[in-house]
Structures are given as structure tokens and as C-alpha cells.
Amino acid sequence: MKAQSPSVELIFEKSFLLPGTSIRAIEIDETSNVWFAGSNGKFGKITGGELTIDSLSYREKTPSFRSLALRKNEAYALSIENPALLFKLPEPGSGESPELVYKEEHENVFYDSMTFLNPKVGIAMGDPIQGCLSILISGDGGRSWKKKSCLELPATVEGEAGFAASDTNIASWGDLIWIGTGGKKARVFASTDKGESWTAFDTPIIQGGAMTGIYSLDFADALNGIAMGGNWEKKGDFASTKAITENGGKTWSLVSNGDLPGYISCVQYVPETGGKELLACSTEGIYYSADKGRNWIKLSDKGFYSLRFADKENLWLSKNNEIVKVTLKHD
């Protein structure tokens, strides 16, 4: 099946079914294998067109994963709710046990996203506890994790949090990190020193409601980035759902305001396009921009939670019960 536009074409190549699993976290490793982590303790890998599904439990409970990060070809997955559990995953299907590298117990714990900046430094973010974002930092390649003190972080406002929609609340470039929030405030928290110190910047993304704000952000380089989201309760509203920065996240400007897309759960720059091309998705469909996010066209009505590029032409999308391989073909 194909979805066409005047300049690009989406070709849905192959579907991999994972019944009973919501998949919001997917990553592609250095050898083009696709890792995923989802609900009901499920995780796995697609290698050479073959799907391997595995699962884990902790004290007879199956954690729900919304965050996945790769360190070279090692995978780490972080569960959302109390207790928060961060595992180094085994090779799927190997029979080896996952390694629990971090655990956090608190009635308000809820982690949204994680990534590695480099082979040594990892970061995870979650909803606020005691007035600041939950931020975990690893400096030893994921073997151990330490939570940042609220004394080291900007304060959040009541009702400000993250959304565990697609594992893209965090973006990084070199030593730089950006985190997007939503709810009562839609801000970008930025660090220039691998997460040691932080500054919060306002954005014009829709905010003030329980489900409004930034759901995803990505950066093409140290200066140019995009934040997208909207109102999950009014997904068809096009106002104040997307903004770009040209100064590393300090200031943000609305783009395509009042025009599609509305609600977006994941946005990614297309590799090897110099930050000009982007692809975004949500339950409402798949959208494409050829001018740094200023204008968008809809490529498909098919709904997905998250997407990741293997290269300029090959990408993967995930949703409930399914991961799909897709080709982005330029005319």
C-alpha cells in the first residue's frame, strides 16, 4: 500500500504483529536491528526481517515500558509506574535474565523517556516529584543511575509534566539536552553540560489543560529544533501545536499555525537532509515537511505512536500490536 504526495511517497513494506502489546518505544541499533519495548513486560528485536519477542516480570508483576535507549548495541528499558524499574535487557530469546540497574519507589513516580548522549552518558526523564522533573543520569554506560536533586533543577509549576507518548520527550546533540513538558505549562528544559545544570524556556505551544503541550521534540543540530504536540483531547485542533527554534531552544516560534497537523505524538528529522525534511505521526496520521517544519502535508491516514529512521529512506513506525517497516521514497 502506498501513500503519495507531490514530492515524497510512503511505501508500507512489512508489518510485524505483537498481539496485546502497546509499543511506544522503538530504537535502531548500529547494525540496523530494531529494538522495542512495550506494555505487559514485552520487549524484543527485529533482525533481518525476523521478529523475536521476549518478556520480563518483576515480583510477579509485568512492567509497562514507554522508554528505551540504546548504548551501542545494548538496550535499556524503563517502566512508567511505581515502582519505576530500569533494566539492561538481555538478547531477546536468549533465556538470559534482565539486569535491574535502577529502582525508584514513590506514589507519583512516572517516567516518560530516555536516551544515551554517547556510550558513557545516559539520561531519563519523568514527571515531577516534590516540585521538579525527575531526571536520572548515568555516567558509566547505564550500569548505574543517579537522580538529580530538585536543588539542581528549575522548579516545575503545578500540573506541568511529561507525556509518555513516543519516547521523544528528550532530544540531544553532543553535550546538549532538551526536554519538553506539557500540561499547565509547555516548556523546554535545556542543558549544555550533559545534564549537570538546567535552564527552562517558555514556548508558545498550547498549554493550560491536562493533556496540552509538547509531546515530542527533535533537533537537527545544536541550534535548530522542533517541538510538536497539541491537545490530546482535541486532536483536530491545529492552533499552537508546533514550534521551531533557531537558537538552541532559548526562544520558539509557532509554524504552520492554524494549519495541519494538529495533535502529534512523535516528530523526527529525516537524516541526511540538513534539517530541511521532517516526518511526524500520531493516531491521526503521518505528516511530512520539506521546509524545516514551516509547512506540512499529510501522507497517510494510518495512525502510529512513534517513528525512527534507519537512514534517509528507511524507517519504522509503532502502534498498538504492530511495528511496520516503511520506505520514504523521494520522487
Supply the number of helical segments: 0
Q: What's the helical proportion of residues? A: under 10%
| DSSP, total strands | 29
Distance between the termini: 17 Å
Round the Cα radius of gyration to an integer and report it: 18 Å
The SS-based structural class is mainly beta
Task: Write down the overall mean pLDDT.
Answer: 96
Strand content: over 45%
Summarize the model shown.
The chain is an all-beta fold and 331 residues long. It is built from no helices and 29 strands.
Topology:
Blueprint: E1 2-4, E2 8-28, E3 34-38, E4 42-47, E5 50-55, E6 65-71, E7 74-79, E8 84-88, E9 99-104, E10 111-116, E11 122-129, E12 132-138, E13 146-147, E14 160-161, E15 170-173, E16 176-180, E17 182-183, E18 187-191, E19 199-202, E20 212-219, E21 225-231, E22 242-245, E23 253-254, E24 266-269, E25 278-282, E26 285-289, E27 297-300, E28 306-309, E29 314-330
Antiparallel strand pairs: 1-2, 2-3, 2-29, 3-4, 4-5, 6-7, 7-8, 8-9, 10-11, 11-12, 12-13, 14-17, 15-16, 16-18, 18-19, 20-21, 21-22, 22-23, 24-25, 25-26, 26-27, 28-29
